[in-house]
Design brief:
With 203 residues, the protein is of the alpha+beta class. The strands form 3 sheets. It has a 4-stranded antiparallel beta sheet with strand order 1-8-3-6. Strands 2-7-4-5 form a 4-stranded antiparallel beta sheet. A 3-stranded antiparallel beta sheet has the order 9-11-10. Helix content is 41%, strand content 27%. α4 crosses α7. A hairpin with a 5-residue loop joins β4 and β5. The protein contains 7 helices and 11 strands. The model has no long low-confidence stretch (mean pLDDT 89). It folds into 2 domains: 122 residues, Jelly Rolls, CATH 2.60.120.10; 70 residues, Arc Repressor Mutant, subunit A. It comes from Kandleria vitulina DSM 20405. One of its GO terms (cellular component) is cytosol. This is Cyclic nucleotide-binding domain-containing protein.
Amino acid sequence: MSPDYYQYLDLKEIPKGEHLLLQGQQLTQVYILLKGKVRTTHITSNGSTHLYSISSPLTLIGEVEFMSRQDVQNDVFAMTDCECYVIDVIRYRDVFMKDLVFMTYICTTIANRIHVATQNFSISVNFPVENRLASYMLAVEQGDIVEENFVEVAQMIGCSYRQLQRVIKHFISLGYIEKVKRSVYHILDRSALEELGEDLYFT
């Protein structure tokens, strides 16, 4: 954005586990992710949760709703402690709509978002569970540790929990990962997962 608009930014820390956006609510803030990692998911009318993307800095969050003036389309969840610049949409939407630099960036971001959503949908539909799980683990790991609710992971990557457990056990038998404790795994062979998960769930 143009330097004149920096005055409208607030710096905010968002702890792990907190939502930045909630599906169905009115958009009140747009976020510029500076540190950390967030996950974007969509809950369908039948209650299924689908993974859209996992985002790292620098990522704009809420740009589609900013432009469309519609309610929030997806849940955005802090997977780690995050730091963001925040734009108050209620107070400053019209101000930022006049910034050509910012609006150009939003258009570029939305185009990229469509590309990523298409790619991630292709991964979920066309790739075996082994590839999807490897991709997901690489996307969410922190220091080679993956700590997740794997019932939710199964939903997000489009398979049954039983299928997911079979693949996890297979990865353990091959020495790709080891179980640390319930819902926590340590990546032992990163290169093997990278070979399986060449197409990652990233923005």
